[in-house]
């Protein structure tokens, strides 16, 4: 009943988090490399340096040099949220956001908290609440690049808080690209997108 005539529809769920964009692309490259050469990935330090190297070669650190703006989330898709039952509203995504993470838990990627703890005034102004595992809400966070992601290592660091919602939907722009990278609960894949 959710299918729209003339559109390809993919539905899915996740336990912990879903991400799309550059972080999923780097994870996909790392997992592909590890499958091809498992003998090279027996040391945590080597794994981390390989991950960082792939982040550099994929343009995650040097966005303006290596990453076309057409791959930014806003250029790729409209993101719609369901905050109230049966009512979808479009989420404004800044043009600089290249990765979007939807959290069902207050942490991801080894315990990092991309939502952070918004101060009371800002949370009230933007209608945000503290994230809880059982609140029925997804926290939607955006990242510009790896430098932005590294701020999560700071005690009060966080991504760009975009919204909280019960459901999220991505409507991909016609012909924007032939594929995108996605990741659910740590498992990345290359998602083909129909050009029509």
From TrEMBL:
Ordered alphabetically, the record's keywords are: ATP-binding, Kinase, Nucleotide-binding, Transferase
According to UniProt, the name of this protein is Diacylglycerol kinase
Biological process annotations from GO = phospholipase C-activating G protein-coupled receptor signaling pathway
Instruction: Establish whether keyword Nucleotide-binding is in the entry.
Output: yes
Cellular component (GO) terms are: membrane
The protein's matches in InterPro entries, at most eight in alphabetical order, are given as:
DGK, Diacylglycerol_kin_accessory, NAD/diacylglycerol_kinase_sf
Specify the domain of life of the species encoding this protein.
Eukaryota
- Where is each Diacylglycerol kinase accessory domain found? 16-188
Q: Which Gene3D superfamilies match?
A: 2.60.200.40
Q: GO MF annotations for this entry?
A: ATP binding; ATP-dependent diacylglycerol kinase activity
């Amino acid at each position: 009943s959710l299918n729209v005539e003339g559109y390809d529809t993919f539905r899915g769920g996740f336990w912990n988090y879903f991400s799309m964009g550059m972080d999923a692309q780097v994870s996909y490259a790392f997992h592909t490399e590890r499958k091809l050469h498992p003998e090279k990935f027996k040391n945590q330090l080597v794994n981390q340096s390989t991950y960082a190297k792939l982040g550099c070669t994929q343009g995650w650190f040097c966005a303006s040099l290596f990453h076309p703006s057409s791959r930014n989330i806003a250029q790729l898709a409209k993101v719609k949220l369901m905050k109230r039952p049966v009512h979808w509203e479009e989420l404004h995504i800044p043009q600089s956001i290249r990765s979007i993470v939807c959290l069902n838990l207050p942490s991801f990627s080894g315990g990092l908290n991309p939502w952070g703890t918004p101060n009371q005034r800002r949370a009230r102004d933007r209608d945000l609440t503290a994230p809880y595992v059982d609140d029925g809400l997804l926290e939607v966070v955006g990242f510009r690049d790896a430098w932005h992601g590294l701020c999560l290592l700071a005690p009060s660091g966080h991504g760009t808080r975009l919204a909280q919602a019960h459901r999220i939907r991505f409507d991909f722009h016609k012909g924007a690209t032939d594929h995108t990278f996605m990741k659910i609960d740590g498992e990345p894949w290359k998602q083909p997108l129909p050009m029509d």
